[in-house]
Amino acid sequence: MRLLIVADGARSRRALSHLFTEIGHTVATAGWVGESLGRLQSEPFDLVVAELRAPRGDSMKMLEAVRHRQPETPLLVLSPSPEVEESVQALGTSRVTYVRTPINEAQATAVLRRIERVLPARQGAAAAADLVAAERTPAGEHPSHPAALSAHDLGEGRLEIALAEGPVQKVLRIDATGAPPNLLARLLVGSYITGQDQVLITARHGLTEAQRKEIHALVDRTLGMSVVGDTPEVVEVQNFVDPGKHELPRLLHRVSQMLRTEIEVCRTALSGVGTPQLALIETIEEEVDRFYLLMVRQLLLSSDNPRVARNIDVESHHFQIGYRLVAKVLEVTGDLIHGIGTEIERNLAGLRRLPPAIRHDFVTRLERLDHLLTRTMDAFDRLSVVDANATLNVIGEALPRDAEFGQRICRRIPNRKVAVAAQRIAYNLDMALEMLIVVNEVTINRCVEPETVARTGTRVPTGPRHSPPPAKRSPPGHSRESPGEV
Question: How far apart are the C-alpha atoms of 481 and 486, rounded to whole Å?
Fold first, then answer.
């Protein structure tokens, strides 16, 4: 089903979007009243999921408006409050379902199955008619819809105007005749992140076996990209990812969790506790690269489409630039941690024979990187200038000492091969901290962007804020998030 999630806070919308997406539904999100009613008027939804903390007047008016304007659209109301349950029952309709929160995947699945069973028959007929129409429309010939202007509020009375496009299939044709190695793969990456739906690759005398292998290798590494046709004359590649389906903060969170898992694997291997699972780093690194390309694709498409920008929770074109930089920084940080894992795997026996004090220093620095990565992404998510500034101060004090540590350990390790490996690990740890500097600077800059200032009443809070408790460690070798799932 296609669901509209309505909730006051961005965190609630992200959590509910994650929950219902994980159980196989297409999700869009909106704030209360005006934004949600606007979405309902312009887009069809099978179900509205509304989170109510209390039976406020405006929230109940919104439920009444949905019930009267679209009486056949079911409503699922989520709330921890018994008062909300009483108010929902007072609406007096079977189209409104109330569920006490918190709600888990099993409960959500069961509730949605019950709702699906009572969906009006005409919705099923309409969906079948749409499917038949889609099957009759050849790829690349989807009917275009009249162009319309849409506006996005930037604050301070400013609007961002954009041309809203209809669902037109974008097709790219590539002539691979004489293409040098790796060029086709890079062109496919470009087609993916710029939003091409279909790519047709041909060559004057047919594609070579090497070219076809290059195409398949890239497609296998990219989320939502598939080869749907493969002959010696033409390879047809299709991109199936809906750019507005996955909220960008959620993807960034998953990437940072995967990086923390890589760090934990390296820390465990160096500490000598348990069985090293360094092969896991290679798998996670491939997932980080996939997620990075997906995020870049979303951001480039959102720059021309305000609807996509709203769906992925990127509030302005200025924020799109910052998100692009943060995504790249996390991808580079993943490369650096992958390099640390590679050095540990190649020189594990020698590194484990190092004096306990040196090994302890490395383990401590890995734990510190884990902690600072968590602090950095939490400050970025909460837009806390205070926490970002505190993390920058910690990194600024640590980097000079770490540089001396890297030079010192080389002189203390007699085995040249192990000494070089240790120095490379130390260098990558330094560079990872440099990457975190960039993210914290983006957080501070974002707080003084015109759009942010307009939403906070032109005041930037600089006082101390309560810090969340440190995140719990996952067992070595177990990702905090399933890396292959979006």
Answer: 10
113: tokens are 């199955």
Q: What is the dihedral of CA 373, 375, 381, 384, to 10 degrees?
A: -140
pTM, two decimals, is: 0.59
Other beta carbons within 10 angstroms of residue 378's beta carbon come to 19
Mean pLDDT, contiguous 10-residue spans, the chain (486 residues): 80 82 81 67 78 67 67 80 70 71 82 74 38 34 39 48 49 90 93 87 91 92 84 86 78 93 93 82 90 88 79 76 92 96 92 88 94 95 91 92 74 85 92 95 82 58 52 44 42
Show the domains of the chain with their CATH numbers: 2-136 (3.40.50.2300), 171-239 (3.30.110), 248-455 (1.20.58.220)
